Structure formats: C-alpha cells, structure tokens
Q: What sequence folds into this?
C-alpha cells in the first residue's frame, strides 16, 4: 500500500476492516445456504474448524487484495478494473485454501459445495460494496482531486462532454490553468480558471491543494509544458495524464477528432492481447448462439409468421432481409435479419437508418424496439462472420464515404462485427457522418479494451435493453 496522509491511511484501514467483516459474514451465510439447499451433503463441522476455515479464507483474500492494490489510497481504477482485482483476490484465496485443506489441514471436513459458494458470494458482495462506496463517495475513496493544464479548445472537451455531476463522480475538478498558446475563444467558458504560473508556484499549488492528478489538455505543447515540474510531480506520486487517456478512462470512448499519431503509437494498442479469449472466440460464440436459439426459436417462428401475413398479398415478399455488410478486415458478407422495412424502402438508393424511420412497417417498429429483428443473425454467428459482441457492421456504400471523412474509421474493422456492442448501448441510430463519428468513439474504445469482462458487461446491459424495450 502506498504511503499517503494519515487521513488517507485511516480511510484505507476502515475500508479493509469493513471488508474483513463482510468476507467473514459471507462465510457464515454460505454455511447456512449449504445446510439449507445441500442438506444431503452437509457435514456438521466443529466450531473451531469452521472458524479456522473462515479466518484463513478471509485473511488470504484480504492479503491478496492488498497485493493487487485494492487498498491503495490513491487508486484510480474503473469499476470493471476493481471487479477484476476482486476476482483475482478471491481466486487466490480459494486456490490456497483448497491446497491447504487437501494437504495439511486434512482434519477439516466440510461440504464440497461450501468453498465454491463462499468464493462466489464473496465476489458478489465485495463488488456491490465497492460499487456503492465509489458511487456515493463514502470514505472519499475512488475520488481524486484533479487540475487541468490548458483552458483552450482541447480542454473544452471536458466542459462539453462532462457537464453533469454524475459524469464527475469519480473526481473533483479544481479548475483549468490557462497557458500561452491556448485558443481561448473556443476554450473554457463556464468552468473555474486558476491563474497560477507553471513554475515553482505550480509545484507548491499541487502540494498545498493535495492534487492527485494533472491532466494535460493544452492546445500547444511545444515550449509551454513545464517538463521538469511535471517530472517532479510524477516522482512525488501525482498522476500526469494526457487528455485523450483521461477522456477514455472517464467516458468509455476515444475522442477521435483529438487523436494524434504519437498517442496511437504509444498507447496500449488496438488489438487484443487476450490470446485464450481469441482462441476460444468461435466456440464461445457458437455456444451462446445455440443457447439463444433454444430460448428464442418460438419467438422467431411467430415473428416470421406475422411478417409473412402482413405482406401476404405482395408478390415476392420475403420474411428475411439480406444485405451486404463490411466485416473483419474489410471482408464483405451477407447479413440476415427479419424484414422490418417496406419492400420499396430503398427504391431511391441506400439511406441512413433513423430513429423514427417512415420506411419501417408496423411489425418492424415492434421487433426493432425489442431487437427481435436481429435474431436471424445467429446464422451469421454460426458461419463465423459475426460475434455476439462487436461494432455493428456497416454497409460498403457508407463505409467508403466514412473512411474518407473520418480519421481512423477503418480501425473498427480490426475485430469481428457483433450483434450487440458498446456503441449501440451508448449512442442511438447513426443517421449522418457526424453520428458515425460519435459511434466510432465508442467502437474504438471497445477495439482497444476488448476483454471477457467488457463483453459480459455489454451482454448484461443488452439484456436490460431488450427486456425493457430500450432498443436504439
């Protein structure tokens, strides 16, 4: 654990004590659940053995949590990152207890279901606890003080994109420091400006105000950035973050219009480093597609019948709609969907889809709202042309235009397109080049951060969208 002020250390100690009590209580709760639901395999355990096992597991989880930085006073991590660390901590505790009870502490007899349930409930309980701790700002954890160097056009992206209080719950923004070279006409308008020289006075300002992080957002860097001062800040444990990294972390998108080549070169990259996930990609997608098909085939059958009878008098009317789309590495494939538009929807050529599209049929409105029109794309998943999670595949006619008009647009084709995606959850139908630019910010974030945890998060939120008819 990093050294901080006495106040910060006290907060971390309180957090640790609370989580010790939570893990210990979950141990008791798990034994009650095992006794109730698995009574046939339940073994009465001596109180001393029970206390030994709970104490051992609790101690191991907390020590592992310490080792992965969960009690760092200045931990700056996304909620997803915190869950990952919790999972690792509990996994370590589970593994060590299993080894010890099977080799050294063989006298402890307990149900085979106890430890797995204990570990699973511990992950859930600590994740929920950390969510509310961070979300409500309790103990002042997960929230840091930041200051932004720059008050021009680049810095104004914070003012424009993070106006609401909920957008800033993870940090306290003290203000913006104007420096020479900033475009003040297009810059900060309604935020607090801090007029302090970027010299020794700035170093003292950082110390006096207990600043945790400095965000670099100036319009002109050459000859304006105080490299020595920032270097000293890093040595003192103060974070120094580029504006693009800050926006990526706090908003879940990459600000494409502010990207520059060196940031791309030195960033974490836009290709997956999870080789196990990549190797199992097709198998996992096929299993998921099979499960969804088993659950939804009656809905698909009914939908097909309704679409058929809606246009039964129209000669050549089809239940399905096939269309060419751009897939992985720019390869073309035919996407298949339930037809939700009129037969003559594109008699005048390809058009952008809009929220209240007049070309959509009555049935189409309903099946779009609940994403039922997407279900036939399970066939594309079985063919290996699509994944469950990924950027939505776009039409070649639009892709050609978007590649010309939007920088880095082609990078979204580094992964397979998907049935559901980060952009669909965060932005509505794209009806213009500008909308495509906004969606690309989320697509590139997914391409850069693709992981099993992010896929699970997207799947969970997509289920919520489908169940409550919040389709975009």
A:
């Amino acid at each position: 654990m990093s050294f901080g002020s006495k106040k910060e250390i006290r907060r971390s100690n309180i957090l640790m004590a609370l989580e010790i009590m939570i893990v210990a209580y979950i141990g008791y709760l798990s034994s009650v659940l095992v006794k109730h639901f698995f009574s046939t395999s339940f073994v009465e355990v001596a109180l001393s053995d029970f206390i030994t096992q709970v104490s051992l597991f609790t101690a191991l989880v907390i020590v592992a949590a310490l080792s992965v930085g969960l009690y760092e006073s200045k931990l700056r991590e996304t909620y997803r990152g915190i869950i990952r660390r919790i999972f690792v901590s509990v996994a370590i505790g589970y593994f060590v207890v299993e080894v010890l009870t099977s080799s050294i502490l063989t006298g402890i007899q307990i149900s085979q279901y106890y430890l797995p349930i204990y570990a699973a409930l511990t992950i859930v309980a600590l994740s929920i606890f950390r969510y509310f701790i961070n979300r409500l700002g309790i103990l002042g954890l997960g929230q840091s003080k930041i200051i932004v160097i720059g008050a021009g056009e680049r810095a104004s992206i914070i003012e424009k994109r993070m106006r609401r209080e909920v957008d800033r719950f993870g940090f306290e923004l003290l203000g913006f420091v104007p420096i020479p070279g900033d475009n003040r006409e297009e810059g900060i308008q309604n935020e607090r400006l801090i007029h302090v020289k970027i010299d020794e006075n700035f170093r003292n300002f950082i110390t006096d105000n207990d600043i945790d992080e400095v965000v670099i957002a100036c319009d002109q860097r050459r000859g304006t950035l105080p490299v020595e001062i920032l270097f000293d800040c890093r040595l003192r444990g103060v974070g120094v973050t580029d504006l693009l990294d800050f926006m990526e972390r706090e908003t879940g998108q990459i600000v494409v219009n502010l990207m520059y080549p060196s940031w791309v070169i030195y960033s974490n990259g836009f290709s997956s480093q999870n080789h196990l996930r990549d190797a199992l990609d097709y198998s996992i997608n096929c299993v998921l597609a099979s499960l969804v098909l088993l659950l939804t085939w009656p809905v698909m059958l009914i939908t097909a019948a309704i679409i058929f009878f809606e246009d039964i008098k129209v000669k050549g009317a089809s239940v399905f709609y096939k269309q060419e789309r751009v897939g992985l590495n720019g390869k073309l494939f035919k996407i298949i969907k339930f037809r939700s538009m009129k037969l003559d929807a594109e008699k005048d050529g390809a058009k952008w889809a809009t929220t209240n599209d007049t070309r959509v049929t009555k049935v189409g409105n309903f099946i779009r709202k609940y994403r039922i029109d997407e279900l036939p794309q399970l066939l594309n998943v079985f063919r290996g042309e699509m994944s469950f999670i990924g950027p939505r595949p776009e039409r070649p006619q639009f892709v050609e235009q978007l590649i010309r008009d939007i920088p880095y647009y082609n990078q979204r084709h580094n992964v397979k397109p998907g049935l559901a995606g980060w952009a669909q959850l965060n932005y509505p139908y794209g009806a213009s080049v500008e909308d495509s630019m906004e969606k690309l910010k989320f697509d590139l974030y997914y391409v850069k951060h693709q992981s099993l945890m992010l896929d699970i998060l997207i799947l969970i939120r997509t289920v919520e969208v489908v169940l409550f008819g919040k389709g975009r």
